[in-house]
Structure formats: structure tokens, C-alpha cells
TrEMBL record:
Gene responsible for this protein: coxS
Designated name of the protein: Carbon monoxide dehydrogenase
Keyword Ribonucleoprotein: no
Domain spans labelled 2Fe-2S ferredoxin-type: 2-78
Keywords annotated in UniProt: 2Fe-2S, Iron, Iron-sulfur, Metal-binding, Oxidoreductase
Pfam families from the UniProt entry: Fer2, Fer2_2
Source species: Marivita lacus
Residues forming coiled coils: none
Signal peptide location: none
Amino acid sequence: MTKVTMTVNGKSVSGDVKGNTLLTEFLRDDLRLTGTHVGCDTSQCGACVVHVNGEAVKSCTMFAAEADGAEIKTIEGMANADGSLNVIQQAFQDYHGLQCGFCTPGMVMSAAALLKDNPKPSEAEVRDYLEGNICRCTGYHNIVRAIMAASGQDVPAVAAE
């Protein structure tokens, strides 16, 4: 067992982990932060995206011991200080950027990383950035619209049926 200490959503946490414990397992099982989802076990779906030292990381690809000393932000840490939804979360709600909601935490975390690095992305840049996140319900159109709205830009029109 290895002792790990990290800051998660602004709080110092620690625990003992096996060498092969994934960060996603530590977050979900040890810290009970279940908003970080496990969708594929192959690092393809993006449901497990968290921020590690400010960078978007698929937490199923990182061992918890690798995050020792790191600053981690999960979907649970995305809300505003008063508990209200942040601008990205609110846009996902306003523009119906979710259906079943399983991929939503990873999508929101990826969107936050994109908007941090590129505050005014084009629609094509949003679509390209989300390539590592899979949604089986929405067809992505409303997710893209939500991210564009969160960036303060004009929102693409709804596609004709």
C-alpha cells in the first residue's frame, strides 16, 4: 500500500492505495465522489475526465499514486461557491446538452478545459476537442450548442429534423 495525499475540490485528502489503484477508483470508491463515471474501461469514452493540476485527464488512465501531491477537480467541484451551477453546467441545462446524463460530467470537465485554453472556440474546434468524449444519446449537437453558449458566443441553430 502507498499513502497518497492530494487536494480534491479544494480539500486536502489522503488514503492508502494499492499500486494499481486508478485515480477514478480512488475518487469514486475511497472519496465517494461518484460524479466521475467509468464508462468503458478502455479510456475511450471520456466519462471519467477530471482536471489534474489544471489539465483535463481521463482518470481511468492514471494511477492514484501518480496524483500524489496534485490538485484535482472533479465535477463535484465545478459548481459556484454558493452551490449554483457554473456557466458551463447552466448552459448544458439551458441548451439540453444531456439526455441520460452519463457522459455529462466528463463533457462538462472537457468543456471547461477547452474554454480555459480557448475561450472563444469555433464550432469546429468544439467538435474536434470533444472527439475523446463519447455520448450515445444526444448526437452532440446540443452539447456543442451548450459549449458555444458558455463561451458567450452565438449558438448554432438547431438542425432541421
